[in-house]
Amino acid sequence: MMRLTRLMRFEAKIVVARVSEETRKATIYLNPEFAKRCGIKEGDVVTVSRAGRELKFRVKLLETAPENGGIIPNSIFSNFLADFDGFKSFRADIELSEGDESTEEDVISIIMQKK
Amino acid sequence: MICTACSCLCDDVEIVDGKVLNACERGYRHISRYRESRAKPMVEGKEVDVDSAIEAAVELLKSAKSPAIYGLDTSTVEAQKIAVEIAKKLNCYIDDNSSFCLGEFVEAILKKEIPSSTLDDVRDRAYVVIYWGTNPYHSLPRHMSRYAYYPRGAKRQRGYDEDRYLVVIDVRRSEAAKLAKKNAKFIQVDSDLELVDSFMRALEGKAGKYEVASILREMKKADFNVTFGGLGLKYGLRGNFRAFCELLRNINKFAPLYFIPSGFHANMRGFNETLFEAVNAVNSYSFSSAASSPEFAFTELLKRERIDTALIVGTDPIASLPLEASGKLPKLKKILVDPRNTLTSKIAEVVIPSAFSGIESGGEMVRSDGVRVKLKPIAKAEVDDVYVLKRILEGL
Predict the structure, then answer these.
(1) Whether A20 contacts chain B with CB within 8 A
(2) CATH code for the domain defined by A2-112
(3) Which end of chain A is least crowded, N or C, by CB within 10 Å?
């Protein structure tokens, strides 16, 4: 059965920060209360979009994430969405998605197409 | 050995029977995995020998109309000095990550515009310890335990919960913020500039958006207080860096407060000091214009498409720069010198493998507080940054 929240889009505050857990996958650490309000669970895949760009992230829950959003570790994924005005913190839209999270190769491929 | 995973440059890390002792999680990963995913010499996607890769790099630089040198924050001071010589010879741009990181803080310290001190003095003397826009729990995992908060120092003998006053300023309740319980304060900040304003008003006895008078009262009790500022502070100031410097100067009329930048690559301060000694600028320098300017920052050169070739040393710009800058990388020739396979090595025309400074290569680095540290490598690589850059300089 399709989840109702799949049709909804939520505005989130994204903080770009270092996390100790080492991953080269696109991961977003959402505040548990924010995720609950949005009907998002750990392990879900969400699309994070900003300024005409979007990537898919696998969700993990983290208490130290900002109350109204989440943390994306400093990476090719965060920097693809950020710009210098919002290098450490920006607002973005989040919605439940399907399939797998984006890969580094996906991002490089988009960047190389800009040539 | 000296751990080169971050700018703390911890000097008590030991390797015993192949085990890494005393390192934090970040340092442990850095040291224990140094043999993994190593770069190979490549030219236009084909594997070659190191000499051929260096020769290809020299040819690219010789034919470049507008080259830039970028990175070097994990290289030794010795390598950085050679890179400056190359930039001088090519009459080109040279920059590191500090131009979009904490370079302006280091520049203000070197020009003595803001008071700074050493981590050793912090350990021995600091009472109020402020972390502003930085979360040492993840970025500098041993910072609080080795220097800033937990140790009993020469003049701080009663332990952290009595003899330190911790202040954490962040946009979220970070791991460091959760430690701010007894004799401590956490400020969840929406606007760093409004917090600067609140401090300024409190100094005049007025109320501001944030309650900070209690912090100033604590500072007044001691002869040494310190602020560690990170990237959250830099970007939170939204370009108004001078307002923060003025705040530091005004607080120092009231109570002693030192500033130390917090949270960058192992030898970013070394790059700032090396360039400062050579040309009186910490980054974003053009030998052609004989000047430093924000428009000569590598990111700006990319955005404005002012360079056609880049010699990139020990950094991964396609991963670490926002799209407005990284999106321009495909348009230029890239020579990458790096010990590890990175995402940038996948798009570089020339890749030259190097060594991990501090693990396989000796030399000098500069800690975040300006203290110079001699590295004690545990292995010896024939090809390191000094070797590669020296060969490039000779080839030019």
Answers:
(1) yes
(2) 2.40.40.20
(3) N
Is a pLDDT exceeding 60 seen at residue A1?
A: no
Q: How many residues does chain A have?
A: 115
So where are chain A's domains? 2-112
List chain A residues with CB under 8 Å of B323: 53, 79-83, 111
Q: Are B376 and B76 in contact (CB under 8 A)?
A: no
Class of domain B103-261: alpha beta
pLDDT at residue B361 in the model: 97
* CA-only gyration radius of chain B, Å: 22
- Tokens read off for B352: 């030259």
CATH code given to domain B39-100+266-395: 3.40.50.740
Query: Could you give phi then psi for residue B117, rounded to 5 degrees?
Result: -150, -170
Half-sphere exposure of A40 (CA within 13 A, CB side): 32
- Hey, what are A56's tokens? 């898919």
Domain residue ranges in chain B: 39-100+266-395, 103-261
B240 CA: distance to closest CA in chain A (Å): 13
CB–CB of B357/B76 below 8 Å? yes
Q: For chain A, percent helix, then strand, then coil, each to nearest 5? A: 25, 35, 40
Q: What is the pTM of this model?
A: 0.96
Of A15, A22, A112, the CB nearest to B347: A112
A51 at the B interface (CB within 8 A)? Answer: no
DSSP state of A43: T
pLDDT in tens, A47-65: 999 999 999 999 999 999 9
